[in-house]
Design brief:
- The protein is mainly beta.
- The protein is built from 5 helices and 20 strands.
- The strands form 3 sheets. Strands 1, 2, 3, 4, 5, 6, 7, 8, 11, 12, 14 and 17 form a 12-stranded mixed beta sheet that branches. Strands 9-20-19-15-16 form a 5-stranded mixed beta sheet, with no helix packed on it. Strands 13-10-18 form a 3-stranded antiparallel beta sheet.
- The longest helix is centred in the N-terminal third of the chain and has 13 residues.
Length: about 280
């Protein structure tokens, strides 16, 4: 199963995605997940006003290539939980010790950005880095999961994410909220898919302007997905739609205005974004 979120006839919709040859297609409209409250509120208002209804079942949709759609981030999480230094070589390249427990931080939902969106590099920072990652989407409420819990039943699917980081601010501030949390600093997409298995090894590759910079496998995680879910939910209840970024391989580095960053994971596609200078505040 794969799905995307996109604009169609001036409405936000979800679509079922299938592979046709070498190209992904949106083959039909799909029901919105329960956590997309804005979607469901708009639908309820349209029903109450007896206006045009946003119910996908009532629309005439012709299949279209995914690349031609006006894609949005395929997630609407209440929170974005991220794992730092979950690859040994990445910890070493930044001069950090390998953590003995998962290192957690948050990104705000306001940092979300779609596939093909532009990351805005803030004037407060002199070094903005890319970090390509596998992310997972929570399927149902998860709190205080036991170590032997059926963790897969709590995962709806997987997607690609960029943990964009103002590296100089990260070092300056000590805590990472500002450095990781700027608007556009969490690109996600293009789809959410459930037909991949990180425990069998998913390769994460990041290219900057076509040049390979990161090449890692989920088999190299320091902390596995079940271990992360157990650790996180001991403190934080995860809700349907919440996003978990699992860490980045070695090879991160600074970017310049005009750079294009592509992160690829087989079965999930390519998440592509360009980087530009954010305007100075008036």
């Amino acid at each position: 199963m794969k799905y995307c979120r996109f604009r169609f006839e001036n409405q936000i919709m979800y679509g079922s995605v299938e592979q046709r040859g070498s190209e992904a297609w949106i083959v039909d409209l799909a029901a919105a997940p329960e956590e997309d409250l804005a979607f469901h509120l708009a639908y309820a208002r349209a029903l109450a006003a007896k206006e045009w209804v946003t119910d996908p079942a009532g629309l005439d949709f012709e299949p279209m290539p995914l690349g031609e759609a006006d894609l949005l981030p395929p997630v609407t999480p209440s929170k974005i939980v991220c794992v730092g230094r979950n690859y040994r070589e990445h910890a070493k390249e930044l001069g950090n010790e390998v953590p003995v427990e998962p290192l957690l931080f948050f990104k705000p939902p306001s940092s979300l950005l779609a596939h093909k969106g532009t990351v805005l590099m803030p004037p407060q920072s002199e070094r903005v880095d890319f970090e390509g990652e596998l992310a997972l989407v929570i399927a149902r409420r998860a709190g205080k999961l036991a170590a032997d819990a059926d963790w897969r039943s709590y995962v709806r699917g997987y997607t690609i994410a960029k943990d964009v980081t103002a590296r100089d601010l990260q070092k300056k501030d000590g805590q990472w909220t500002r450095a990781k949390g700027f608007d556009t600093f969490c690109a996600v997409g293009p789809v959410v898919g459930s037909d991949v298995d990180p425990e069998k090894g998913l390769t994460v590759e990041t290219r900057v302007n076509g040049e390979l910079r990161q090449h890692g496998s989920t088999l190299d995680f320091i902390f596995s997905i079940p271990a992360l879910l157990t650790y996180i939910t001991a403190a934080i209840t995860l809700e349907p739609g919440d996003l978990l970024l699992t860490g980045t391989p070695a090879g991160v580095g600074p970017l310049a205005t005009g750079d294009r960053v592509d992160v690829e994971i087989a079965g999930l596609g390519v998440l592509s974004n360009t980087f530009a200078a954010a305007p100075n505040p008036a």
